Amino acid sequence: MVYLDNGATTQKPQAVIDAITHYYTALNSNIHRGVHHLSQVATDAYELTRTKLKPFINAEHEHEIILTKGTTDAINLVAQCYGKAFVEAGDEIIISALEHHSNIVPWQMLCEEKGATLKVIPMDVEGNLDLAAYKGMLNEKVKMVALTYVSNSLGTVNPVKEIIDLAHAHDVPVLLDAAQAVQHIPIDVQHLDVDFLAFSGHKMYGPTGVGVLYGKEKWLNAMPPYQGGGDMIKTVTFEKTTYNDLPFKFEAGTPNIEAGICLAAAIDYIEEIGLKNIARYEEELLEYATDSLLEIPDLRIIGTAKQKSSVISFLIDGTHPYDIGTILDKLGIAVRTGHHCTQPVMDFFGIPGTIRASIGLYNSKEDIDVLTEGVKRAKSMLV
Ligand SMILES: Cc1ncc(COP(=O)(O)O)c(C=O)c1O
């Protein structure tokens, strides 16, 4: 099988699979609560992931790293908690035309609840955001800019440093959805000066069910808790509860302990290879795949931004993406077809969906050759 659906989720390296087996064989216990040995060992292993995440994204403090269920959960946390504290009727939230549904709907829900307005940075036909329009949208009513680092359906890499600097010039914080970035591009949250960063473990060679919310200490301290329950409290009486310190204030209840612990194995795996090496290799592969696919007559790439990462979305005139995807599946090639949870992007291009090949670090030029031949064969069967 040739697996080119890494944007949806990555396969897991043996080191991560072994870590999961090790957890259930040797460490299984609840964390942050037991005085017994197993609980302490499991707690240490869980907290080690946080320790490893700090240099991985260059956070200033370990307690700025909240472990969540995933990117979606992390964005919902910010929309709800930041929204509760800082967003009022008449305010504005800016997102972009490229967003995954998980960075649209939580803000829409917040705007509905608060009587705020959602504004969208437009894009051009290549999939580049219109920065001039963005500059014109920034004003004192804007309370958050939330956008994706890398588009999951077009592959556009947004100029996030510039976008953050412009927002900060108006005292507006920025949330970056790094679900499609953190496994492909080295990220330094202090250099970016980003206020919030969200990503998922399962898209970076780690387990499903764990994700990360990085937030600047000043924001996290100023936000109310997300959910109530165990672990997020200091003291509870029927009259009043006092909340725990960061990061635990945002981590109510028993988390996905196994996934949290085993994310560390994925970080080690990525760091051993090195994100700079991964980025260089995948860039070369993306260029090779783009050139190979474009040799197929009537194949059109959707998303041709100057800066792209890991994703090629395409269509073949006279065919439906589902039909191509189904034939590719029969040929042992896994790609994604559909709207990729970015319906507004598909509406912009006036198409029902695309065929999306998304690259991971284990893909090779041979995989791309198999894809190209598969697409040619599928086309010959349909047109
Ligand atoms: C850009 C982007 N944001 C958010 C998500 C949601 O991630 P999750 O489903 O892991 O929460 C995805 C998943 O495909 C994505 O590609």
Shape descriptor reads globular
How many strand units?
Answer: 15
Relative helix content = 40-55%
Low-confidence sequence ranges: none
So how many helices?
13
Structural class: alpha/beta
Give average pLDDT, whole number: 98
Amount of beta strand: 15-25%
**What small molecules are bound in this structure?**
pyridoxal-5'-phosphate
User: From N to C, what is the helix and strand string?
Assistant: EHHEHEHEHEHEHEEHEEHHEEHEEHEH
The strand line-up of the biggest sheet is 2-8-7-6-5-3-4
The Cα radius of gyration reads 22 Å
For the biggest sheet, the summary is: 7 strands, mixed
Distance between the termini: 25 Å
Characterize the structure shown.
The chain is of the alpha/beta class. 42% of the residues lie in helices and 17% in strands. It is built from 13 helices and 15 strands. It has a seven-stranded mixed sheet with strand order 2-8-7-6-5-3-4, with helices on both faces. A four-stranded antiparallel sheet has the order 11-12-15-14, with helices on one face. It has a two-stranded parallel sheet with strand order 1-13. Strand 9 and strand 10 form a beta hairpin. The model has no long low-confidence stretch (mean pLDDT 98). It binds pyridoxal-5'-phosphate (PLP).
What attributes does this structure have?
alpha/beta; binds pyridoxal-5'-phosphate; 13 helices; 383 residues; 15 strands
